Amino acid sequence: MKKLLILVVFLIVAPRISAQQERAITTAVPFLTIAADARASGMGDMGVATSFDAYSQQWNPAKYAFATQKMGVGVSYTPYLETIVNDVSLLNATFYNKLNDRSAFAFGLRYFGLGEIELRQTIDQEATLVKPNEFALDGSYSLKLSQSFSMAVAGRFISSNLRFQDGTQDSQAANAFAVDVAGFYRSPEIAYSNFDGRWRLGFNISNIGGSLQYDEGGQQNFLPTNLKVGTGFDFIFDQDNVLAINTEFNKLLVPTPRDFNGDGQITSEDNDEYQNISFFSGIFESFGDAPDGFSEELKEITWALGTEYRFREAFMLRGGYFNESAEKGARKYFTLGAGFKYKSAQIDLSYLFSTSQVKNPLENTLRFSLTFNFGEEFLND
């Protein structure tokens, strides 16, 4: 009964729920793929090539080398499944410090609390209260390799505590380590006929690491290794008015579930063979292992469009759209967001409207972020 309850909880909170699609790719710790800050989530859940902010740790830590102030702190709160429960949420905190004009380091913590659950073997038994949770603790270092291009590496410790003591087995959390490799390009300001402009490009290969395993000798679960690439352009109309247009593409570098023995269905034997794929081999296989070939590989790529208007760097309006194939998860939604800055403090809000037949766990949810930037200023021109 306990194992069933934990399984139900895990399935409820996973952002990719698809009862009909056998080829939808699922991974362990899916909370790592949730946009953890209100600025990114206001632009369609993107951030690999947007301008720098304190929350770059999740999206592209190479952006920290272009920070405009010495250091900053950001905290975010995201309610999850708010229409069903009120104690499931994602908390995010980041800190960055710029060492000099060329380099910076940062730390981040993401904590996903699944609320309080009552466990009983029988209806009249006294309940045992448990609080399943998952978290990731990471650090990064970024360095400018030129005035316009930077790269970063990040390390991450991941813990997933979804099992509990039942008297016959331990309740240790499943743990794993992962790394990120990222790059960011920001062009100098370019003078066009009626405005100035600036190009941005970014990539991040995140969560490269071994699998999570909850039972000794049991099933191994792939981490959500992911490739993000994106581009953006800033329309700088004058010193007070800037409009940024961004686009981003994502692909999970995880093998596609498939029929290995060719009997027309995915069986337990196929799942066993799938589990034997190493994470390193899986990264390369993920580019060409879809059963229906290239057309299905394209369906495994999600894309997003986002825009941000900034007025005097004090007021921001944002909007975005995220799209995923109906066969690979069916997440489709619009987002809206706003930001307000006063001196060193900034607050950001975002809201999501689902356009898919599959209900989104973040639908009709208001997300919050609070940022403080302070210290020496850097021009980064």
Automatic annotation (TrEMBL):
<feature type="signal peptide">
    <location>
        <begin position="1"/>
        <end position="19"/>
    </location>
</feature>
<dbReference type="Pfam" id="PF19572">
    <property type="entry name" value="PorV"/>
</dbReference>
<protein>
    <submittedName>
        <fullName>Type IX secretion system outer membrane channel protein PorV</fullName>
    </submittedName>
</protein>
<dbReference type="InterPro" id="IPR047799">
    <property type="entry name" value="T9SS_OM_PorV"/>
</dbReference>
<dbReference type="InterPro" id="IPR045741">
    <property type="entry name" value="PorV"/>
</dbReference>
<keyword id="KW-0732">Signal</keyword>
<feature type="domain" description="Type IX secretion system protein PorV">
    <location>
        <begin position="18"/>
        <end position="258"/>
    </location>
</feature>
